[in-house]
Amino acid sequence: MKKNRFLHTLIWLLLGLKSSMALDAGIAYIVYATPDRPYLEVNIEIAAGSITFKTMDSLHLQAAVEVLILVRSGEAVANYEKYLLNSPLVTAPRDLLDVKRMFIAPGEYTLEVALQDAHDPQNSQTLTYPLLVEPVRETYLTTPLLLRSYRRDSTENPFVKHGIFLEPLPFAFYEQRATRLAFFAEVYYGERLGANGYAVRYYIEQDMGDGNTTLVASGAQRKKPSRLDAVLAAIDISQLKSGNYTLTVELRTEHNQLVARHKVPFRRSNPLLDIDLSKAEISEEELNNYFVADLSEENLRYSLRALSALTWADDAEALKNLLAGNDLYAMRLYLLRHFAQKNPNNPEAAYLEYMRLAGAVDQRFHSGFRYGFETDRGRTFLRFGRPDDLIRVDDDPAAPPYEIWVYFNFPKTHQRNVKFLFYNPSLAGEDFILLHSNARGEINNPRWEVVLYSRNAINQIEGSNYHDATHMQRNFNRNARRFFEDF
């Protein structure tokens, strides 16, 4: 189970030990050759599982990494930063993230980033990259910086630019829960492209593995003439399958002439999109990576029973048979499949959202005989949502309590003014039964009024044949048909 594995890992961390993997870092470096003075920005991310977290008190852990950033021109050092990067005090290990900026003159360099675990000197990594800083005299587009997220921020935080907090993604890896790819770039001397402005075009291509690529998403922004402008954009990647991709950002004139282009590779993991969930099996080991592995048998069965409201025909029979057995693996697999089809990026979020609703429905319509979501009103609420209007009658002397639910628009069948009539013939608690509906595919009982007023229906039906009668005689207190047809 995930929780057990986490506790086991945490015990080792509390003992001051790290995982067997060497220090693992991602680096994203960008040259911002601003018109005033060019500078280098280095974004660093260090994986929590690759460094040592020491206990600081009874609740908190902390890691530290010695960082050395060198910019070399041959054997000469053009600029450098050396410092100790401390994680905040945390209750569970998490990645370290940092950004450093340094001014640098135009030229060709080598960027070297050396990292060493402060609690384990043998755990280190050194990364080197070629670095070109060009003098900017014409229109210029910076390399796009991939982002994990962004938000408005007016503080002096080093991750803030142009009033936006930019959380970088140095590993260039979008995990399953990520639904958007965002990036940031800057454009200098854009006014030189003409008085009508220019365009920034961006698109994502998938690497097909044979030298070919496939376009999977694209977008564009129009920009006004400006000496310095920021580009911030997001692309929906929720439906991108696992694989290697490339983000391309282009600067183009108003006449679509290419001025500059940058390509940034990234990886995407989306395992639940890579398989046919209706057919494929998932091993128990793989299943342990998802929320269903942490559900007790009681919660598992409760969740599946809550799903019964959404099942039809063969699927409903399959779920019934599943609940009658004891195969917990099959139950977990069924639950994961259902919510992965709703939200393959984050099936747990879809599950929690639905269970919050099912719990509220259970409380609202609980009958004393079954869960509220298993009653007719509970099922209707979960299938079709809250009604637009509702009439409840408890004081009709000739009928048991009844409710009429009204849906002005009914997308399920593309009908308008759809109604459901529930009644409680046993007068037991709140166990109302669906008697009649004009929704296609639901119970349609032409004799519903006769059944509702069955206490004295024989003497007050319209016509002389009780078995064929569909209407009751009009009466001052007998309002169900008026409510159903005229409301």
Helical/strand content category: alpha+beta
Counted up, domains total 4
CATH fold naming of the largest domain: Immunoglobulin-like
Distance between the termini: 54 Å
Helicity level, as a percent range? 10-25%
| Mean pLDDT rating | 89
Shape label: elongated
Q: How would you characterize this protein structure?
A:
This protein is of the alpha+beta class and 487 residues long. The protein has helices spanning 2-14, 284-287, 297-307, 313-324, 328-342, 347-365, 376-384, 448-452, 457-460, 480-486, and strands at 25-32, 39-46, 54-55, 61-62, 64-73, 76-86, 96-103, 107-117, 124-133, 140-141, 145-152, 160-161, 164-168, 173-174, 180-188, 198-207, 213-223, 228-236, 243-253, 258-268, 389-393, 402-410, 415-423, 433-437. The chain folds into 4 domains: 1-135, Sandwich (Immunoglobulin-like), CATH 2.60.40.10; 138-274, Immunoglobulin-like (Sandwich); 276-371, no CATH class; 387-486, no CATH class. It contains 10 helices and 24 strands. A hairpin with an 8-residue loop joins strand 21 (389-393) and strand 22. The two termini are 54 Å apart. Residues 1-20 have low confidence and may be disordered.
Secondary structure: elements and pairs:
Blueprint (H helix, E strand, L loop, with lengths): L1 H13 L10 E8 L6 E8 L7 E2 L5 E2 L1 E10 L2 E11 L9 E8 L3 E11 L6 E10 L6 E2 L3 E8 L7 E2 L2 E5 L4 E2 L5 E9 L9 E10 L5 E11 L4 E9 L6 E11 L4 E11 L15 H4 L9 H11 L5 H12 L3 H15 L4 H19 L10 H9 L4 E5 L8 E9 L4 E9 L9 E5 L10 H5 L4 H4 L19 H7 L1
Parallel strand pairs: 14-20
Antiparallel strand pairs: 1-2, 2-7, 3-4, 5-6, 5-8, 8-9, 10-15, 11-13, 11-15, 12-13, 15-18, 16-17, 16-19, 19-20, 21-22, 22-23, 23-24
